[in-house]
Each structure stands twice: as structure tokens, then as C-alpha cells.
Amino acid sequence: MINSNIVQTLIDTLGKDSILTHEEAFVRPASVWRAGENLQCKALARPKSPTEVSEIMKICFANNQTVVPHGGLTNVVGGVKTSIDDIAITLERMNVIEEIDLRNKTVTVQAGVILQDLQKAVADAGLLFPLDLGAKGSCMIGGNISSNAGGLQALRYGVMRQLVLGLEVVLADGTIISSMNKMMKNNAGYDLKHLFIGSEGTLGIVTKAILKLEDAPKSRNTALVGLNSFENAIDFLHQAKKNLANTLSSYEIIWQDYYQLMTSSPSTFSPPLPQNYAYYVLIETLGQSPETDTTLFQNLLEQSLENGLIDDAVLAQSQQELDWFWGIREKVEFVFSVHKPVFLFDVSLPITEMENYIETIKTNLKNEWNDVAFYAFGHMGDGNLHLFVSCGDDDEITRHKVEEIVFMPLQPIGGSITAEHGIGLEKKAWLHLSRSEEEMALMRMLKNTLDPKGILNPNKVV
Amino acid sequence: MINSNIVQTLIDTLGKDSILTHEEAFVRPASVWRAGENLQCKALARPKSPTEVSEIMKICFANNQTVVPHGGLTNVVGGVKTSIDDIAITLERMNVIEEIDLRNKTVTVQAGVILQDLQKAVADAGLLFPLDLGAKGSCMIGGNISSNAGGLQALRYGVMRQLVLGLEVVLADGTIISSMNKMMKNNAGYDLKHLFIGSEGTLGIVTKAILKLEDAPKSRNTALVGLNSFENAIDFLHQAKKNLANTLSSYEIIWQDYYQLMTSSPSTFSPPLPQNYAYYVLIETLGQSPETDTTLFQNLLEQSLENGLIDDAVLAQSQQELDWFWGIREKVEFVFSVHKPVFLFDVSLPITEMENYIETIKTNLKNEWNDVAFYAFGHMGDGNLHLFVSCGDDDEITRHKVEEIVFMPLQPIGGSITAEHGIGLEKKAWLHLSRSEEEMALMRMLKNTLDPKGILNPNKVV
């Protein structure tokens, strides 16, 4: 039944070039993270324009055909998962940067543009597109919008939601909603774009966007800091926000266990600071005034060392040292080479709760498994931590037990089970911890309104 | 039929103290702007809690009773207009600041808190709530959220949408949606708050919010600048954004006609700069490093004078001078004492289009009326201009003609008929200029989903 009627209809309408059959699509990967896992789908549509996306959706809507939008396939929560019954739509051919408007500081970009390509084009034009994350070489702008990506500079420039000015979306029934607003302020009716940002392709398919650009930074200051008190890490963050003339762009916390792992053999990184501090902070600024920015940065470090707010600090003084410091924070794939299998989490919580939260999880994990590995680090400045847990197995019962330990303590402190990654398929069972029954009902109501047949990214999120 | 059954039901349920009858409500004003215009309504409900708002809505929903949410009654587009058939709900008794969280920099606030009171309480606690606008002494936080207020410092700190972290809302059927998120990043399911921010009370009644706080500024630098070229005003803005270490908080443009009006008798303001410049810019920074901030600010002015980017500049060097400079920009009520009646507009457009746009309007207004008065000024840094037009009459035909002249040129340049004020009743007829048929249909679909009986702020926006 694979080569069913609808696939032929799509081929007849869009041309053979735009529709890959199940067999043709199967040679492609299902995810950039899992080499060897092939794409399973009824067909893979490769539209070249919003009109083609609309045509595809009209046909699928008429046939009650489920559709899964695909960008760079970097999602880590099953948000792009397909079955043999789904039609996948990849935005990869809609990859044109349509306009970089230097005077109004905006870029108009199709959904299939790869983040790194956009960063480069904007930088070549003398400006900055500030979204930055590990998957930038693969992830696409449409996916960044659908998943409301965060990343490494959200502290300074905001998450994706704050960078989107205008949006074009194709609804489940093929309607094209063009809200291509270029303005900072617009109160003319409901701001529809927010429905689609962060809703993981369940309410519409993002096809185009107008994004805010920033001035290219002229200064970058980076240091790795060692601290023995989490309270001090909070105070140091507050001091950094106050005293760095709004240049603070990253404030990344690393718990000792992760630091030790990343700076000990077989890791190739040596430790820039001794391995005995309880916490490490990678602090970075991006600014416009090199001299002033550096002075303020170094003053902050010196004063914080003097008054005992921080215990140690080392500046990155070359590109090599930048790569080294950032590598320790960012090269998380190293964890997977040492431990297998690994459960990966991405929670947010008030920074005042972080210390207790991590201690609680650590204790509970150790109570359950003797030789569990547990690593914590993340965007402390954004209230967002990444957690890695490895306890030997990854069967469903183990997964559930680990999730329970990580997620349950979030509810009483008003935390969220996902700051960046989203819900996808994998976290659906826990969504009720972060959202009330009334909120869930309203989400379902919105889903039913915008996608009455439930064909858009089925079973994800709600 | 005024004292109908439903009013008695409300009294029986909530107590006499919480429900004013038509007669009791009539002594209250319908708007802070129009003294002497009395409040017309079937009854005025004064709930003390979200639960009471919910009870009221359940009764109104069951009885198909229309409801108009009221805050500080400072809306200028008919967004709080009531008829004798409506029940008004004022949030004025829900005016508690529940928590100022200094460590996480958030405030939890009920909808009826007056903006100025919130600003003061937060300042007393050593932080800043950055929303600031002319009506701050009357407007309430719930209204600021429902109308997505902008104001004088949006350039630096964002509009209200960017300041809201968590929201509690009562739906048309009385359901309480509590999304009291405290975190900067949260991707657990749809971000429901954005449905209610800026939708002018047509989708739900805001009852409580968690708002982001900022560090209190330690420096303030202000200058009035004269320029003869709009192109230079754009370049000067770009230079200010680049060279002031992110402290730029206001960039207000004033066209010559408005400057001359505000600095000539019978106005009590004398002109800080000669009256013959084509444009004036009121530029202000708020920062954390007094010495650096002032140096950068003065360097920018000196260099811009030297290289001819600006033609003249004067620094505000005392509170008196601050009041003077800002008074010229802000004391718009003076216009109403000189001209009557006055039509008031609040448009947004790309800054590169502003010069032509204002010229076009001026020409078209003069072609229509010989002695028309036309004043333009506003938040240029946000792409947002306020326009005042007075042409002798304010009958419907005149109003329509003026609106046509102001609004029609916005469509081809992708502008918006309202940046801050919203649609309310008064701009509904023109919404189609800023939004497509498909967008309007989606707005109506959302309205029907959330308010199937159309009882919430009826006939507003959609």
C-alpha cells in the first residue's frame, strides 16, 4: 500500500522531481544524530515555494493524510519522527535568503536556509544574526522557529521568538498565512506569528520569515571562572549583568563532574583551571567598544577575585584558547563516547533553585543506581540546564524511572521540563508536570481549530 | 430592563459590594480622557480575585451576556467602550503586588495595579520595571498587557509582550488559565500567553502576571539634537545603537511643525534649540556605568557635530532641563488646547519610508483642507510615529477622509495602522490595510474558538 494513490496525485501535481517515493526517500537519514537510521515515510515532498507547500497540504487535507515537516533533522525529542504512513515535507529546497535590509536591519529568509549559512551571509553584509547553537551547520531556520531555539547567546539577544518579526506559514488546509511584518511594533490585530513559533510544526508549516538583525560585535571577552559556592555564582551573574554595559552574552555553568570528565583522559582537553572547584562558569561578552568592554570585563574579574565572589579565573587570550574553553562546554558528543546509553535533558528553573535541584537529582539517581553517571551544565543566565544521565540501560522502565527523578522535582518549584528542546514525542507523557489541565485543554482546543483533522505532525506535543 | 435578572444573580453570587448597578456605575467616568462622559453599562462588577472573575464569567457565559474588561480607562481607540447592554468588569480591586523576587528579578502582580505604583514599588526594591508611558498614573498592568503597551523605553527594554513571563487569564466561559511561568526559557507546549497579550480583552481577561525586572539604571544622559536631513537622522540612530554600549533607551523624532508649536506662545516652553531645523531628535540613554556612559554619549554628539551628521545639540544638565526637553515631546495635551477637534494616529513603518510618508500625508491633507494642522513625532527608534491632524471638523465623513489619507499610504510600504494603541472599535474598518484576508479569517477563527458566544469585549478588533 506504500505507493498509494495520494503519492501519484502529488507526483502528478508537483512533478516527479518534487516527490520522492518511499524507496527513494529511504536512503536518506531520519536524523543527523543517528547515522544508519533510514527515513521511513509514504513519500518525501520537496516543495520549492510556499505555493507548492500549499498545494501539497490541500491534497493531504482532502485525503486526511498525515504530514511531518522536516528541516535539518537535528531535533532531539522525536519532533520530526515519521512512520511509513506519513508524508514528510522537507523545506530544504526553499533555501534562499531573499533580502538583507541593512537600513532597517532585517533579513527575509526562506525556511530551508541552514542557520550557519544565514549567519555567514549576514556577517558578510556587516551585521549579526545572533542565534547560535551547536547544530548550526545542519539546522534550518524553519526548524529554529518551530522549536523556538535558544542556544548560546540568548542571554544577550533573546531566543528565536524574540528575533522573529514576520512569518509566513501554511496551515493544515493549505491556506497561506502571510504575516511578513518588518516592524518592531505592530498592534494591528492578533499577533498570529506567536501561535506558530515553538509549536513544533503542529499548527502550521513555517515557510518564510523576517528576522531582526543586530550590529556585528567588535569585541569579545571570554573567561573561565572557578567557584566553590553556587550562591556566589548567582551573585557573580548579577554583578556581570550590572557592570558589563549590557555586553554579557553567555553565562554558562558547569558542575564539577562534567568539568572533570571533559578535562581528563581520554578527553583531549587539559584543564584550564584546577579540577577541584565545585562550579565553573564560562562567561563571555560581545560588545561594540573594544577598549571599554575589555576594561569592564577585567575589572569585574579582578574585583570578584579580590572580594572572594569567585575563586579563580583565566582569560581566553587567543582563538585557540577560545576553542579550548568553549570545547569543554560544548563538545557534549564526548559524553556519548564514554557512556552509553545516555539520557539527555533540558530543563529550566529559577536560578535560586538550581543548587538544591541538582543535589536532589544526584542523590535520587545514586539511590537507584550505584554507578550512575550524571552531568550538569548549561545556560545558567537563562535559567536553563542541560543534564546527562547514564545508568547502564535505556529500556522503557529505566527511561521512565530516570525521567521521574529528573522531572518530578520541577513541579513544586515551577520549573519546566524543557527550556529549549521542546516536547516532540518523547516528553509528551510529562507535559502535565509543567502545564495545568486547563492549559492542556486550551492547547488541544487550538490544535483542533487549526488542524481539525489532526494531520500536521501527528501525536507531537498535544 | 436595566436591572435585569442577571444583575441580581451577580449580586446574589458576589455580594452587593462587588456589583454596582447601572445607576451606581453611571457616576463614574467612561474614560480618563473625556471628563463628563459617564459610564454606561448594565452593571459594573468589581471582583477581588481571579475566582470572582471566573464566577462572573460563568454567569455571563450561561446568559450570553456581553462583558467589557476595564482597567485604567486610558485606551484611545474605543477599546473599553461599553453600552447599556454590557456588563463592565473593572480589575481595580485586584491591585496587589504579590511578590518582588530580587534574586530571579521578577514581579508577580495583579491586573489592577496602576503602572506608576508598580514602577515605584519596584524602584523602592532597588530594581526597574521599564515600561513607561504618559498614562502611567492611571493605566493598569492588565490593560498594558491586553493592549501590548509600548511607550518611551521600548527601544531599550522591549514592549510589554517582551516583559511578560507568566500570565493568568480568565476565559469567556470562566475557565482560569494559569500560565504563571517565571522562567526566561520554557518550550513545554504552546506559549499560550501570547494569545492574550495585545488582543485587547477579546480572548480572555488578564487577572495576574509575572513580569521581568531590570537593574535600576545608574546613569541617564539626554540631549536634544537638531538636524536638517532625515537620512542623517537614520544614520545618527545607527551610530547611537553602535556606539553607546547598548544604553540607548529613547530616540524620539520631532518634525519642525510640532517643535515650533510646542516652543512658541501660548506654549510655556521656550525653544532649547533654534526653531529652524527640519527635524529634532530627543536622545536618551540609561546605563549602569555613569562615567563610561557619559563619555560615550558626549563623544557621539561631538563626533556627529564635527562630521556634519547632526547640525546642533544641547545636553540636559538638570532635572529642570530634563522636564523641559521631555515636556516638548510629551505634553501632547497642549495640542488639544490650541486645536479642536484633533484626530490622533499611531502608525508604524520602516524608518527608511518615514520621510516620504510624512511628506505625502502633508501634501494630501493640504490639498483637502487649506488650514489643516498636522503634527508628526514619535518613537523613531521603534519605527513608530504619532500623528495629530486637525482640520476643523470631526464628523464621520471628515474622519474617514483623514483616516484614508493617513492609512492608505501605509499598505504599499508594509506599514501598520497602529504600533501601540491597538484596533479597538475605531480602527476596525481599516484593519484590512495592515492584515490580509487570510489573517483576518484566522483571527476570527481564534475568536470563535476562545469566545464562541462572542461575549468578550464585543465588536472590538475582529
UniProtKB/TrEMBL annotation, chains A, B:
Domain FAD-binding PCMH-type, chain residue ranges per copy: 37-216
One GO MF term attached to the UniProt entry: oxidoreductase activity
Cofactors demanded by this protein: FAD
GO biological process: respiratory electron transport chain
Keywords: FAD, Flavoprotein, Oxidoreductase
Family matches, as PROSITE patterns: FAD_PCMH (PS51387)
Pfam families in alphabetical order: FAD-oxidase_C, FAD_binding_4
Gene3D superfamilies: 3.30.465.10, 3.30.70.2190, 3.30.70.2740, Uridine Diphospho-n-acetylenolpyruvylglucosamine Reductase, domain 2 (3.30.43.10), Vanillyl-alcohol Oxidase, Chain A, domain 4 (1.10.45.10)
Family affiliation: Belongs to the FAD-binding oxidoreductase/transferase type 4 family.
Protein name, per record: FAD/FMN-containing dehydrogenase
Species of provenance: Arcicella aurantiaca
